[in-house]
Design goal:
By secondary structure, the protein is of the alpha+beta class. 23% of the residues lie in helices and 34% in strands. It has one domain.
Length: 167
């Protein structure tokens, strides 16, 4: 009986700590999508749809993230350090004519990088995917993130406080 109670307590404790996770401080702030990155991927829409993302803003706080008017509160959070090879294998096809994406195409020079994934309910933002822009990001450096939507890769830059509040 004591073991069962201990196990139950442990399971509840793990669940509560997972559900109370905060978005990492390194991601918090406002980010402006500055460009799409040239990759060898097969995507579900074209240049017009890609260009519509340029200039949009993603904002992360401790407990939510926002893209345009879509706000996701208390997302589940998964943080992983991935290698260049792991990233390629997980995001590229196996055939010669399949999508191919790698760190070099994304301008990432490091052999490993932090990937943060924010879980949420399925969304219908683009009509071709259930993802929300910025729900899975690579931390390129302290002021640059990379993410994909519909297999198109974008770069976003941290918006400084001074650029948000011009004098």
């Amino acid at each position: 009986m004591t073991r069962r109670l201990l196990l139950l307590f442990l399971v509840i404790n793990v669940f509560v700590s997972l559900s109370a996770q905060e978005i990492p401080a390194q991601l918090r702030g406002r980010w402006v999508v500055t460009r799409d990155l040239p990759t060898s991927t097969i995507c579900c829409w074209g240049e017009k749809e890609s260009k519509a993302f340029i200039g949009t803003e993603i904002e992360y706080t401790a407990d939510n993230f926002r893209w345009k008017n879509i706000v996701t509160t208390h997302p589940s959070i998964q943080i992983e350090v991935i290698s260049a090879q792991q990233f390629h294998d997980e995001n590229s096809g196996g055939g010669a004519n399949d999508s191919q994406v790698n760190f070099q195409q994304l301008g990432i020079k490091a052999p490993r990088i932090t990937q943060i994934e924010l879980g949420h309910e399925p969304a219908d933002i683009t009509g071709g995917t259930i993802e929300i822009p910025g729900d899975k990001v690579l931390i390129k450096d302290k002021n640059t993130i990379v993410f994909s939507v519909c297999n198109v890769y974008f770069e976003a830059k941290r918006q400084s406080v001074s650029s948000r509040n011009p004098k």
